[in-house]
Amino acid sequence: APESCSTELSHVRHDGSGRRARFGDLAEAAARQTPPSAPTFKPRPAYTIVGTSKPRVDIPAKVDGSARYGIDVDVPGMAYAVLRQSPVFGGTVASFDLESVRGRKGVRTVVEIPGAVAVIGDSYWAAKKAADALDVSFDPGANAAVSNDTIFDTYARDMENSPGASDVSTGHVADALENAADVIEREYRVAFLAHAAMEPMNCTAHVTESACEIWVSTQDPLGARATAAEVAGVPIDNVTVHAPLLGGGFGRRLPFYVDFIEQAVAIAKQVPYPVKLVWSREEDIQHDFYRPGLISKFKAPIDETGMPLAWINQYVDAGQRTNNPPGASKTFYDIPHQDIRRVESFPTIPLGEWRSVAHSHQGFFKETFVDELAVAAGKDPYVFRQSLLANKPRYRRVLDLVASKAEWGKLLPLGQGRGIAMEEAFGTLCAQVAEVSVDEAGALTVHRIVAAVDCGEVIHPDTVEAQIESGIIFGLTAALYGDIRIEGGRVLNENFTDYEMITLATAPKIEVHILDSGERMGGVGEPGTPPAAPAVANAIYNATGRRLRRLPILGQDLLGPRTL
After folding, report:
1. CA R_g for the chain
2. Which of 141, 252, 299, 537 is the S-S candidate for 548 at Cβ 3.0 to 4.6 Å?
3. Are 333 and 385 contacting, i.e. CB atoms less than 8 angstroms apart?
4. Are strands 202-207 and 275-278 parallel, antiparallel or unpaired?
5. Per-position b or e across 95-106, b if 16+ CB within 10 A of its CB
6. What are the strands, taking DSSP E only, across 307-388?
7. What is the rounded distance in angstroms from the CA atom of residue 555 to the CA atom of residue 442?
8. How far apart (Å, rounded) are the C-alpha atoms in residues 372 and 350?
9. Binning pLDDT at 50, 70 and 90, where does residue 238 land?
10. Of residues 363, 343, 301, the one with CA closest to residue 534
11. Inter-residue contact 184 to 302 (CB < 8 Å)
12. What count of other Cβ atoms lies within 10 Å of the Cβ of residue 209?
């Protein structure tokens, strides 16, 4: 009888006799049964795997170099392709001179695909040097005048001309404004960001008259298969996809951003052998699908004690995929009257999802504004947040845990400061405290970030910790350095020399504390990113009195007059 059996280590065990059968031995018989619609799970105290940090089987290969990524693919008879893409978004190939590279050692041919020319060679280096030397010209098209300034001017104009569509409308905002003792108004901006995955875009393709085979690092193998079938002009059943490990995705290798797959297949259609397309780092940074630079405006009427009566927010919505999830604009703080609106304003450059998507910018906007409200009220930013979460015990526990572990309130030396921030994303709560210092020359050092996370029931604690650490590094890199500069319809950044990354030498000490609430499971790959930027910006204010209302921090004066 089922009640006389138990499961343990992939076996079903009969408790009375000790007899055991492997799950695999029972699979065929189980497949003939109708599973219950509401199965009874074993009690949590009986778990032996869930909630423990078992060693991950993929780590040794990633450490010793034996792990195989898309860029490591080596197919017999394979050639290499390197692109010269139109530097202007949406530009087309006007002309190219094959004679400028004909006869170069290791060069096989040059082919044209939409928006680019590909040089095919016996090695990546041979193809790359020939591509650099190729005489090619482009028609820039309609985007030749686009720049950061034109985009942000359009944002400002659209926000001025439209109140926007409603995300949240609760209470009576007009009454709150009329009865307020004061009104706090602020505006914040963030820059455009690239994904900058360590493995640049690449795809190997072999196309025959009736079939297609690709090797590609992708977050969506099934979508890659459909894309390859469409470009190759073969039935989808005749497409084989090999999906090796990917050296970073962060949204760049999602289903909607398959340009490098389309290019590889389009190139391979024109030659009889497999072709491995590898983007240079410059191509990777200059032809991304970018997290948009955006504007957000806030207004909060406050009472005589400095507490907010209402929360009024108008922000730029640059498109469905970059405003995902829609709930990212909402505040979880207990403020009775709210009016949150989005104004559609679409830049004519490629935009895409970026780690934590809309939470990446909304977290900075909201938590910087909350900090400013606390300062206006003359209250400690942590205590101020506590009072706004009095009726939300789960949120309060996460906030209290991070403050406790970070020793909030402990005196720091002159020139050092702490900042706190919290965001709810993908069903997970994450609060962070940053400790920073600004020296006499205005140089910033982020010394320590403490995180508290409640992602519901925890399956693998070490994975939770690693993902939160990773998210912090990702968010901190963007906060400190991330700034895609656009001029003349093209990206000016070229490499890690002018699109900087956090390094081992500049990374802070990170502590992650998990609050296992047993609630419904949330995500952990993205929630660590949003609080990093506001926590650091708030810490800079605590250290210097300078309030940062735009990102990145790089290039801003941290030693000027105190911000009012």
Report:
1. 27
2. 537
3. yes
4. antiparallel
5. ebeeeebeeeeb
6. 310-317, 337-344
7. 10
8. 33
9. very high
10. 363
11. yes
12. 7
Strand 135-139 versus strand 11-14 pairing type: unpaired
304: which DSSP letter? Answer: T
- By the 8 A CB rule, do 233 and 56 touch? no
Alpha carbon distance 215, 424 (integer Å): 37
166 by Cβ neighbours in 10 Å (0-12 / 13-18 / 19+) ranks as: exposed
Place of tokens 């389309």: 262
CA 564 to chain centroid? 32
- pLDDT tier at 548, thresholds 50, 70, 90: very high
> What's the pLDDT score for residue 129?
97
Length of the chain: 564
* Cα 356 versus chain centre, distance: 5
- Return d(Cα 224, Cα 244) in angstroms, integer: 13
Name the residue type at position 144: A
Structure tokens at 92: 């087309």
Tokens 């072999």 found at:
206
pLDDT digits (tens, 9 = 90+) for 31-58: 999 998 998 888 888 888 999 999 999 9
Amino acid identity at 485: R
Neighbours of 124 (CB within 10 A): 19
Q: Quick one: the chain helix, strand, coil %, rounded to 5?
A: 30, 25, 45
DSSP state of 353: -
Element (H, E) at 510: strand 509-514
Q: Whole-angstrom Cα distance, residue 526 to residue 505?
A: 24
Q: Which two tokens stand for residue 135?
A: 């005489």
Report the distance separating Cα 236 and Cα 234, nearest Å.
Answer: 6
192/316 Cα distance (integer angstroms): 13
Residue type, 174: A
In the block, tokens 């010793």 appear at: 64
Contact (CB, 8 A) for 189 and 152: yes
